[in-house]
Amino acid sequence: MKPRGISLLLLILCCHAILSGSTKYQQTSADDEDDRDEDEDEDDSSEGYQKPEVDDDGRIYKNPRNSPSSMCPRDEEQADRLNQKCLRKCLTDEDCKSKKKKCRCDGACGMSCIKPDRECPELQEISYAMMTVTGRFFGDTVQYVCDPSYFAVGLSVRSCRADGQWTGSTPSCKKDNNTFCGEPPKVTNARNNALPEQTTFDLDSTVRYFCNHGYATDGFLIAKCLTKNKNPATWFGPDISCKPKDCGPPTNIANGWHAGECYIYNCRVSYHCAQDFEMVGKEEKVCTADGTWTPKESPQCVQVSSVQCPPPQNPRNGKAIYTSCAFNAIVSYECRYGFAVVGDTTRRCLADKKWSGEPPVCEEINCGDPGTLYNGWIENIESGTGLGATIIFRCNPHMKLEGNASSVCQIDGHWRYPVPRCLAPCIVPKIQKGHVSVATRADDRINNVSVVEHGERLVVDCQTNYEFPSNRTPVECNNGTWTVIPRCKPARCKQMPRVPRNGMVIAPKTEHGMRAVFKCKDGFELILKGDSHYVQCSFGNWTGEIPYCREVFCPFPGFIPNGKVLLVGNMGVYDLRPYVKKIVNNKQIMYDCDRGYVLSEGAPGATCIGGHWSPKELPKCVLGQHPRLRWSRRKRSLIGKKRKAGHDSWQHNRIKEFFFNKMRKKFLYFKFYSALNRQHRKLKAVLSL
To answer: 426 forms bridges with which residues in the sheet?
Structure first.
């Protein structure tokens, strides 16, 4: 390749590198500019913020975003003492120049435009403590918790500020509580640059004091945490005094004096005039934080006999009425007919030879547009709407006017009556299975259709077996619509069907076509008289046969080999025989085995439910041994006495048999009810699940 070609190639490569670097630099500069903004607190002089705004504190703010926030006020002096950089002021997100910025409360800096994704530096762990960090973005916090028997020295909770820095400095954990100081001393009318939430300070920590607004600083402003000769650490300093600023005696005025001997910050003095003199100007002055009186101008005491106000001028279409222009004279204003006074109706001559307030004007009384009359029109409005003007309201044909038909413009500038309403008529409907008629008068016709005015009522007559369900609610025309749509429906059944003895009827409604079913009580069964188990409402009558309820009985359960069946009655148990046919519902039986046999493989009893025994299986009696029964000593002594008295063995056996039978029945009765209670408890447990 020739040298000239090599040189040309190198030149092209150099130009390309320069252009790439320039583009990258421009992009980086644009990103930096977007991040910078805005961080500086600058006044916005754009057109959108030219309108002054007066706040509650009396100050006028050109820019609404500079208005102080009551929820998060800005204290730039305190922020400067805490080494906190304040960003752009704001009240809402719209005040921030960048869409990436949000208007948030930033501590002492107040409401500021902050960048939520700006990170604070990464923090290092400290000895003898556990550090918990919620994040590194604005509003995130880090908390330090020292180990047991150690004390936290410094700020234990730090937060990430909008300027990308953590509040305070890194704390430490110390075991000796004599090696750090507590809260710095408090000085009257002064504050320091320490964070309010910090209660412990390390050795050699310094705190700087500042006098409050309106107070002069004098003395040594620094306090330092020191220890001497191994004594507990304590604060040395400050030696400061904060004295209120002195405004000096206020200016004296001629023909008057001032009251008040306090001339320092926040003190007030009031001026008074001698007799026959009147004050012109503000009668009170306040000593401000800069050591001057406000207002600067002093009032004047003017002799009232020399006060003469200029004659007041007559307003256009009116006149001023007065008898004198001397001090305290009053002038009143009147307007001619058709005009009203706008402004102060009276004014007073003041000591500064001026009339109080502003001169009023006489404006023509005009009631203006009365409003829109829908479905109608307003007559005579083209003649004017001034005082005394009359307008007439008209409705379209077949419309009904509700309200006043006319109105007059009154002296107070308002119409006497509001605009009425023109209410539309209703079309008389035609219904099937019935007929409708107008209750009050004959109907009109529009395009071969019958119509009635607003407020008219209809009478609905239905054919046989049909009815109007909303008969108690009047069918009334209401601005073009009916309150109830008239129609004839199949008649309802007026009452429920007859209830069978020992039964009940179940029917959700009594409308046409609805069905009613029957059900019997426990111990009874439903006997149908026809093919269906229900009746149906048809045009106001129930159709179908009503069934009846027949009582059901339980049959004899059967014989038990080597045992017997006992029927439980109100007075005890009785032997149940096959000839007993009618055992009613809920009756109970129990089973008993012969002597030498015991119940096995089955329940000790059963209950009659719906004509069947539950459980239906019979138990078995197997050979076994009855439980030992304890012989009654009283019975035994009685038998012994009878034996001694010469009774024979036959009487002795009768007594013995009677006693055993009685005890056995009691035992079986007790065993039966114990088993029955166990079954009931199991059933309740299953149902509760």
So the answer is: 452
In terms of C-beta density within 10 A (0-12 exposed, 13-18 middle, 19 or more buried), how is residue 241 classed? middle
Same domain for 355 and 386?
no
Encode pLDDT of 2-15 as tens digits: 444 444 444 555 44
In this predicted structure, what is the pLDDT of residue 350? 87
Peptide bond before residue 116 is cis, with ω within 30 degrees of 0: no
Give domain status of residue 153, yes or no.
no
In a domain, residue 678? The reply is: yes
Rounded to whole angstroms, how far apart are CA atoms 327 and 349?
Answer: 5
Cα 305 to Cα 267, 276, 308, 309, distances in angstroms: 34, 8, 8, 12
Q: Return the pLDDT at 83.
A: 80
Final residue of a structural domain among 68, 89, 114: 114
Please indicate, yes or no, whether residues 404 and 436 belong to a single structural domain of this protein. no
**How far is the C-alpha of 621 from the C-alpha of 565, rounded, in Å?**
12
Q: What is the largest CA-CA distance in the chain?
A: 164
What is the count of structural domains for the chain? Answer: 7
- The pLDDT of residue 348 is above 70: yes
- Residue 532 shares a structural domain with residue 619: no
Are 603 and 682 in a shared domain? yes
Task: Say what the pLDDT of residue 391 is.
Answer: 93
- Residue numbers of the domain that contains 508: 503-551
Q: Pairing relation of β-strands 318-321 and 293-294?
A: unpaired
The pLDDT of residue 107: 84
User: Within this chain, do residues 356 and 384 fall inside the same structural domain, yes or no?
Assistant: no
| 34 has pLDDT over 80 | no
Place of tokens 């604060």: 235
Question: Helix %, strand %, coil % for the chain, to 5?
Answer: 15, 35, 50
Judge if 526 and 607 occupy the same domain: no
pLDDT classification of 18: cutoffs 50, 70, 90? very low
Distances (CA, A) of 680 to 591, 609, 675: 18, 15, 9
Q: Is 176 a domain residue?
A: no
